[in-house]
Specification:
2 domains, 8 strands, alpha+beta, Immunoglobulin-like, five-stranded antiparallel beta sheet
């Protein structure tokens, strides 16, 4: 460049400065576009995360509703075995267990009097549909007067286990129902 006239060198320097400025302007535009793309990506990711969170909340709510519905269905089909004094074909009245619930009771066991001073023993009873009864054939006479406690354990068709306890307190027969 030493051999070229100075005006050509000056023009070359100006062109070089203009090219550098133009390159810098293009690079600044690229940087602004990259920043906008990054901001939009963050907004989209946040919106997607919010939508996924809302979907998860909806799924959890649906799952909870399904659990409540299943529990209501189970409750609507829960057997309940009560102790009743019912007319019997062989005598005037006798103690029986009756399914007073809304579902079938299976695998039924009830306590029997074991004898004076002995613990009660458990005895099997047939499955009971809604409203059906089974006479328990107690050997100890008047169950109402001698009742220290009478227990019935049974299952629903869904496999849930239950227990009904009948306990004599003063002159009243108290009933307690529990899930096992």
């Amino acid at each position: 460049m030493c051999d070229l006239p100075s005006w050509i060198q000056a023009i070359s320097a100006v062109i070089l400065v203009l090219a550098t400025i133009a390159t810098l302007i293009v690079l600044l535009g690229y940087a602004a576009d990259t920043k906008r793309i990054a901001e939009n990506s963050i907004k989209q990711a946040s919106a997607s995360l919010a939508q996924a969170s809302a979907s998860t909340d909806q799924a959890n709510a649906s799952n909870e509703q399904a659990k409540i519905s299943a529990q209501q269905l189970e409750d609507a089909q829960t057997p309940f075995i009560g102790l009743v004094l019912a007319p019997s074909p062989t005598s005037q009245s006798a103690w029986a267990i009756r399914n007073q619930g809304a579902g079938v009771a299976i695998n039924i066991m009830h306590s029997r009097w074991g004898g004076h001073g002995k613990a009660p023993i458990m005895s099997w009873a047939p499955s009971l549909g809604v409203g059906e009864l089974h006479f328990i054939g107690r050997e100890d006479g008047n169950l109402c007067e001698t009742l220290d406690g009478f227990t019935v354990e049974f299952e629903s068709l869904a496999g849930k286990r239950y227990r009904t306890n009948f306990i004599r307190q003063n002159t009243e027969l108290k009933t307690r129902f529990e899930r096992l």
